[in-house]
User: Fold these one by one.
Assistant:
Number 1:
Amino acid sequence: MAKRGRKPKGISIGDLSDEVRRDLDLAIESEGDESARSLFARFTLAQRGVGWASFAKYVSQKRREARGRRIEARIASNDDTRTEAELIAELRRRAYIEALAALQAGDAKLYEIVSTLSRVHDFDRLQMERAAEARAADKHEAWKKEVEKSIRSTLDDESNADKKSFTREDVYDMIDQVMRGA
């Protein structure tokens, strides 16, 4: 034991022999369902002085990197012409699958998955707000066109009644009448 009853510091993954580390990295990056706990036990890392927390963090990082490389490879090999909505749906589906796999393998904590799902829902809400804003803008443009058409018809009616010149007050009165729906 070290001073004052503390345990000695463990070794890092980088301190393992090259052969053990290579085998460990292959096992971690494989698409198998082996959990981080079982890898820790299978490679007898506790006896080698590796701490569980640092190993769990290492496994999580390695698997995230491996998933990223696999997704990049799929995207690079997939040169079809899909719409943006189809690509977003595919990414969302893959994210759910990867999150579930990480959760089942013990590589992710539940709060991480909940946080990810929360971000997905925030993205969905943002998309809905953008769509609502676009619909509101379209509705406003249609309303403006109706108002302009109404003002033009009112002006035409007034000009046909032998009143060729309009004062500013006449135009404002017509606009007020149209705006009030009179």
Number 2:
Amino acid sequence: MGAVISKRIQYAKETLQKEVLPHVSINVEGYETRKAFFVGYIVHRLCNSALGRINEDDRDHYGKKRLDLAGSLLGGLFRNLFRRFIGEAQETLKKQVN
């Protein structure tokens, strides 16, 4: 019975280390404290928002996104396709010369 409980505890610890807040590195000493502080920060922001002390932060708002315009996207696409064309043309010419 004790072995089953210790396996469950070990599984829970590994899950918390790897799956919860994966952007907080576990390769640093004291990472548990860093994760705990981050969870505290999240709860603090949530409580302040719920109490009306701060405004809600809408991360998905289009105004906060970085958008590439059509010109730069088409330019990059043309550049990649032109480089591929040049490479294929060189290969074809090398085969024809040989």
Number 3:
Amino acid sequence: MARLPIIDRKDMNAEQARVYDAAQAAGSVVGGPYYVYIRQPALFEAAQQMRQTLGAAPLSPRERQIVNMTIARFWGAEYPWGVQARASLNMGISRAVVDAINAGRAPDLPDARERMCYTVAREMLTNKGLSDALYRDAEKLFGQDQLIALVATVGSFTMTCLTTATFQVAPPADIPVPLAR
């Protein structure tokens, strides 16, 4: 991490150590943006809770991956892109889909829900919201609760991408698909 060094567990203050240990015990993610958030333990906990809540939300893991890759590509965030590209390939999302998103092109997604996840995320980021027509189509396909989860996922993962990009969190060394420049 170029702008903020990672705080070793032994160097954390009592509150940082408490939230870090709780996250470790729960099997939660403590790398990437969490290396930044640990400096504010309440933020660290809130980010962990948001991640857990959205992870249990009605979107499928594949749908969340497509949304997350779209967001990481939009923001040019290397750490999240690398992690999400690897996870996507590991769960069976094709390399062609990963490559299309990486190139800034709409991927060929036969599943209507996955296609809508990409379209909604892309339009939210590009246009700072959804057109009336896309909102109606997305609400019809997902229903209100799932559309809320989709919008919240875009917001939450945008925070992750902006955090890692701003603080220059280095991507993992073993990423299978580097972020296109």
Number 4:
Amino acid sequence: MKKLLLDTHIFLWWLFDDPKLQRGLRKHIADIENEVFVSSASVWEITTKFRLGKLPEAQLVAKKTPLWIEKAGFKSLSVTSDHAQLAGSWDMEHKDPFDRMLAAQAKIEKMVLVSVDEILVQFPVQVMDS
């Protein structure tokens, strides 16, 4: 059994049945042996980007993201002060606070971060991209 933490785009692709979500990743996410988590940082990212007009297609999800996490059969992962400490302390150029938080959560919680964002390999975490 693996503990998977979905990057925000992976969660949205799953919900929208987007063809960009590769078959291999779909298989791992759908595998009932795996525990699948969505971070509260992703909830923040979705609602923020929707508010700013960057995710107009996510209107229904942005209004009730926790409900959509539950409907998908996933678990919510709260942000802790330990997560925040690590995300803020990594000495690297990557500036995206959402990516930094997801990477920190994956590291501390010993999860596999599911993402096709190649920049995340900068972080010392296991990334599943296919």
